[in-house]
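[job 0412] stage=fold_complex status=start
inputs:
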Amino acid sequence: MNKPLRRIAIFCGLLVLALLIRDNWLQYVKADSLREDPKNRRVLIARYATPRGDIIVGGNPITGYAETTSGDFKYKRTYKDGAMWAPVTGFVSQAYGANQLESIEDGILTGTDDRLFFRNTLDMITGKENKGGNIVTTLNAAAQKAAYNGLKAQGAKGAVAAIEPSTGKILALASYPSYDPGTIAGGSTSDAEAWKKLQKKNNPDDPMLNRALREVYPPGSTFKVVTAAAALENGLYTDADAPTKTPLPWTMPGTTTVLKNEGNIPCKNATLRVALQYSCNTVFGKVGSDLGNDKMLEEAKKFGFTEEQFTPVRTSASVFSDDMAPSEVALSSIGQFNTAATPLQMAMVASAVANDGTLMKPYMVDELQTHNLDALETTTPEEMSKPLSAENAEILQSMMETVVEDGTGTNARIDGVKVGGKTGTAQHGVDNSENPYAWFISYAKLSDNSSPVAVAVVIEDEDAVRGDISGGGLAAPIAKKVMEAVINSKK
Amino acid sequence: MSSTTNSPTHHTSTIGAIGAPSRRNTELALLVFAVVIPVFAYANVGLAIDDEVPAGLLSYGLGLGLLAGVGHLAVRKFAPYADPLLLPLATLLNGLGLVAIWRLDQSKLLQQIGQAGGKATNQLIYTAMGIALLVAVLIFLKDHRTLQRYTYISMAGALVLLLLPLVPGLGADITYGAKIWIQVGSFTIQPGEFAKIVLAIFFAGYLMVKRDALALASRRFMGLYLPRGRDLGPIIVVWMISILILVFETDLGTSLLFFGMFVIMLYVATERTSWIVFGLLMSAAGAVGVASFEPHVKTRVQAWLDPMREYTLSQEGVRDGVVHSEQAMQALWAFGSGGTLGTGWGQGHSELIRFAANSDFILATFGEELGLAGVMAILLIYGLIVERGVRTALAARDPFGKLLAIGLSGAFALQVFVVAGGVMGLIPLTGMTMPFLAYGGSSVIANWALIGVLIRISDTARRPAPAPAPNPDAEMTQVVRPS
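[job 0412] stage=fold_complex status=done
writing structure:
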């Protein structure tokens, strides 16, 4: 009986060998892919096992962390003035993941980024607690506060974006109504309830929408700045003060429809300056249809239209259509028809004009740091395009300054500061049945001719009386407060 | 094969151990390691989880040491020539199992779902009962050949044990679908663990009597010895019972274990390779046949082929008549996250397996916290236990002892393969437990009894008896083969 016994011994040996081989396959060959599988909860446990790094504005963190009392995730995110900063930070939640800056820079914030490897190893050796790195943003706390409080005081849906024209640094990004990401940071039932309440289907106000970056609105008359730039750049007009030979009434080419102006304003044969000052639809409609679709689109693209921007948080792409009939180009050129822009896009338009025609790439992350404040990566300002020559930019500046000094934008005047701006009142809804959007874009110039801030404000007001809505009335005061906040913080 | 008991004549069934030392002191020295290693592991868990040496360290160490000591003294007194490795190896596994169970007791998650908390204390009590049974076996089973008398009683007993979970009111459906438990008062018992031993006694007794008929009366066909139709009876009966277990208790593991054990013993008894071929064909046919229509078994097979899909279904709460379980995928993640060296005791997250984390899936905890190195060591310890069992079978002087020893070691090896293979995703998952490591009274007690029987056989085999009871069987039934 011993021969079969020996064979059985070999068989048992083979069984053990098969297990050993399988174990090596699992724990050596496949170990990394199993360990890093995003569905493996250990990935999340590790992610919340160390305090998350902070997002910093002006030297002060706008985030923090707290130890949770239940569950297997140790730390959760906390936010200071969460609702005000939500469009900047996004959220990070133990139950619902993360978005925007919290998601994009997750590697630095959690400390798993390869660039932190050396630091982490050093901490491990010296026995220090591992902590994520910090994100230093370009934002300006005073400007952000002015923007958010301004929107909140209006009580209507709206958004503000502010940029430093010379660098592209984003100074303010506000959206209202907003939400406090701290309420959904944990994994408890109260977080789940808060999350449910914030969803668009349960909350028509859609508070989690980042209106400053992710919502496109018809820009209305503020788009006339782009149209004016196209007119100057393409040599259609070279002088702000020469008559444009625009008839009144002006019938859109290929149609029998007369393009109307708002009220009885001096638009007949008006100069570009006067046309911008009074916001003449006829003049800029004609400019658009004279230039044609291609040239208008080309200029709009130079300002950043039709492309998503990465700040690094992605923005929606602003719209200027292709293949339009001349009448549609005319409507598009006064910010109607298909034209739509994010608030950040319109702030970029104002900033390019203020920065003597050069558009800087907008960004909100100034520096990535280790948790003990050593810089890992610093963002350097980057030129994005040149939509205007310096001369034409100067002409456009003087036109926009007239708007604020003596036109529709007088509400944005600041003593001792040159402010250029443009109002807008965009229609929307079928047959303009819904309340218009009130727009204001502007920039400020100091006495040394430097421009510290360009800003765009949009307010969608459902409750206000229709006639009251105008960019100058609702949006300009907020823009003014934001500009003042930036100027004061520079002093 | 064996350095001390080698015999040049391979076809004689007796391998003498005359003059061999008893090796009791070797066993004692090894037992010290088998107690000290788990004690260190226990301290390690406490330090990792609470930053302090656990308060129960002394009582745990003393408890395990006491049990090992009692086992050793019993062997020294009642089986002085027994194999010196079996007791220390089983003690080491049992001790490590206790540590892992205690470590999972600390998991808040498992405490919340009632899968942990005080389980280590229970397991220590079960271990004490197991050692008590081992001692009882050594005291009352003076000679394993007395078991031969109970061949047919064993058969009846095994059938009763196997069918108990199907008795209405007694069967407890507490694990995912597999009905291999019975409920007595507040206790749940897995009778299959005990049936394993009883069935091995029956097979050994039966085959010892019938092996000549099974081996010799056969026709040769294509190089294989085909048994006569009527000799096929027993294997078909066992096969049918295995299939019934598979269908009604929906447990692939138990079914495979019993059929595999029978085929191994049949092969050893008859030395006919044809039985292996028949056995493989029949088990393959049975497994494939049942897996294709029994929904629970089918789900297990699907979970094996695509654990991620099964995990997703369970997360989505899909209800389509069968229970979808995330366990298979969670176990794979636990192994993968352990990597080569593991996270260290107490620092893994194998509690994510939730249900049965400390029983059927306990190997995953070792995989995560001790890594590839730890699991390989544990698999090799199992391999060594099996090797000692096979060596006992080789050394046994009587055919009944040989068959019983190989049956028990073969079943042990199959069980380790089926459970570890299932947890590691090598084969479909079944509802059995890792011997000695896993939480569960039936498993621990039955496996200590199994070790007891092996120790008894090895003692008889290695005893330098001046005159071993003349057993004419051993010499007279030698199969003379044309070679």
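[job 0412] summary: The longest helix of chain B spans residues 362-395.
[job 0412] exit 0
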